[in-house]
Each structure stands twice: as structure tokens, then as C-alpha cells.
Amino acid sequence: MMVTYLYRCPDRHETDLAAPMGQAPAHTGCACGNQARRTFTAPMVRAVPRTGERVRDAAEQSTELPAVTTMSAPAPQPLADPRHALLPRA
Ligand SMILES: [Zn+2]
């Protein structure tokens, strides 16, 4: 899972850095050349995982830990337009 961390250099510039959760470095380079230190704000976690990750995670879970089904399967959801993956993300 990618998380956006906030860094602030001694000149108070702010830099965003995306890193896997729990693996952000303590410092990163600021655009001004200073070392920016990580600030401990609440990380901005992507609320909606990408469709590909969701499908892969579901496949892995069904391999290692199959869910026991007690009801008939729900109707399949229509797939999102794959062109959405090409749009820029905030
Ligand atoms: Zn700076």
C-alpha cells in the first residue's frame, strides 16, 4: 500500500513523498537542496485500491484462505472503464 508522507526542510518547504506504508525514509531531498525531515502527520492513504490490486488480493486470498460460501454468489459487478486507470491521480 502506497502512502504519501510529508517532509519539511529547515526553510519550511513541504515535499510529498509516496512510499510503501511503514517504509518511508526519515529524510528526503528538498527542491531547495536542504534535507527535508519527515513530519508526523496522519498519512494520506489511498482510500480506493486500484482494481488490479483488488483482483490480485482476492485471488491470493482465495488461494490461501478460501472463504466459505453459505449463500449464492452475488451478481457480478460491471468492471470499471479501464481507461480510468490512465487518468492522472490527485
Ligand atoms: Zn527547502
UniProtKB/TrEMBL annotation:
Residues 60-90 are annotated as: Disordered. Residues 60-72 have a biased composition (Polar residues). It comes from the Bacteria. This is Putative nucleic acid-binding Zn ribbon protein. It comes from Nocardiopsis metallicus. The lineage of its organism: Bacteria, Bacillati, Actinomycetota, Actinomycetes, Streptosporangiales.
